[in-house]
Amino acid sequence: MRVFSSSIAIFLLVVFFGACSPNTKGSYSSFMYRPKNRAALTQGIRGTPLVRVKLYAGEATTVFAENFSFTTGKTTRRGSKSITITEAGIIEPQDTFTFKGKRYHGSLEVRPSKGRWLYVNHVPMDEYLTSVVSHEMSPSWNKEALKAQAVVARTYLLQKIKERAAEPYDVDTSTNYQVYGGVKKGDQTSRIAVSETHDEVLYFGTNLAQTFFHSSCGGTLASSEEVWGKSLPYLTAKNSTWCSAAPVYKWQVKISLNEISRHLKIKNIKALRVVKRSKSKRVKTIQVITSRGTKKVRADKFRIALGALKVKSTFFGVAKAGNSVVLTGRGFGHGVGMCQWGAKLEADAHGTSYKRILEHYFPGTSLRTLNSQRV
What we know:
Layout: H1 7-18, E1 42-43, E2 49-58, E3 62-72, E4 75-84, E5 89-93, E6 97-99, E7 102-104, E8 107-113, E9 116-124, H2 125-136, H3 143-163, E10 171-172, H4 188-196, E11 200-204, E12 207-208, E13 213-214, E14 220-221, H5 224-228, E15 238-239, E16 250-256, H6 257-264, E17 269-277, E18 283-290, E19 293-298, H7 299-306, E20 316-321, E21 324-330, E22 338-339, H8 340-350, H9 354-361, E23 366-369
Parallel strand pairs: 2-10, 13-22
Antiparallel strand pairs: 1-2, 2-9, 3-4, 3-5, 3-6, 5-8, 6-7, 8-9, 11-12, 11-23, 14-15, 16-21, 17-18, 18-19, 20-21
Helix pairs in contact: 2-3, 2-4, 3-4, 3-8, 3-9
């Protein structure tokens, strides 16, 4: 979604990081530059692509590992149990490391950034994807749904690696990108799903597809144009009832007008009214009626202000109930791309393959196998 920066900038970053390698004998480099038309993917042992994940930015924090090396500049120190870092460098654990209560594969880069310490996990791509699939879906779900999620997550990740090549990290751990929580117990099925779709991604024409996903579409998929203003022929509004048995297919919530006033920072709200809907019938604009007049609020802003777990989507209706309003809605999330519950329930009910699931949610795209070093 963003584009490459200059090769020179990438080269300088890679040279700096290469100097931080804990291997003083040079038998392998943890970072490798890929020139010209290849993305600057960081590389691990035997060329395994690494993903740069921002874990945290803030005060110096203790990192735990049984055995590790810490390299800063040309100096490497070895230790065990824990380390609180107060200088830029890279921690290479013998196995995994624990940071803020979560366990991670790969190494941990620490660098100063805007008066704080930035902690970036350099993790092998398949380990990253295993974690994403395990946290975005339950590892106990149907393997075909997990495989579809793996392809979608891999395609999305490679887009981010391209866009953010000159940035200090590719993705973070939140829903701003994809949920990454490090090692998760019982992730074996997710690991198999990642392995069985190794290097598979979705393309539209000659470009990687934009592979968005959400929990439940509520029976109607939204278009990319209505949500983000960019029309894509494979992300259009259409009916999709695969998720009709999902626990978040329908929802209802009662919210007091006082609470809405507080979150929207609009005084004396008396009522709400839907004034505009999109092609998929999701709310675009809400009219807020106060004691002093009216004001229009975008539905996505309304949802964020009230909380995305409370107002699960913008696919809702509004009814007055005394000094409150009742929102009756469908679906969970923005509704664009793959419906996770739909993928799971369709695979459960009909044994639908991950390839058919991807065809349903991203029609017109093609599934291809890439050389993992080429984006």
